[in-house]
Design brief:
Layout: H1 2-31, E1 35-37, H2 39-62, H3 72-92, E2 100-102, H4 120-135, H5 139-167, H6 170-174
Antiparallel strand pairs: 1-2
Helix pairs in contact: 2-5, 3-4, 4-5
Pfam families: ICMT
GO molecular function, one term: methyltransferase activity
Protein name: Methyltransferase
Amino acid sequence: MMLFAVFICFLAIQRLSEVRIAKRNERVLKAKGAVEAGQDHYFWMVTMHVSFFLFLIGEVLFLNGSPPKWWIIPFVLFLIAQVIRFWALISLGVYWNTKIILLPGANVVAKGPYRFIRHPNYLVVSIELIAIPLIFGAYITAVLFTLLNILMLRVRIAAEEKALMQLTDYEQSHGKKQRFFPIQ
């Protein structure tokens, strides 16, 4: 149980740090004339992510979730996702955000993992929402939030790509890339 608490604390610190980075990036971009898109679903996305942690903690503590013998597989997936997360964040720099904040006329970032796929950060989140619960045997959380994430990403990606096409060179720079996987 101590390992679970340490893991949750790590994730909480990571997410709170990302919120801080996102707020800073939002201020910088909006000062340059950036606009926000997708506000109508942002509350629901945040609610889903906060609920993920509550369900995960609840399932592990109250339904006695425990790591399966094969916990190393989802743990390795989680570690790979962290590398991609950091790579995406560094590659986007000031353009990285939890919101859809776009600078009209900007060139879309096409370096780092964005050379290969359009949405590496959403791939990371998708991996995490299934891998993290599986590490601790929280199967209900894994299934429920994988399904909720699919629904959320259908809305989120549509809103983001629409805004990117309207305000940036997205179609020219990313139009032929796969959304999540570099293989066709």
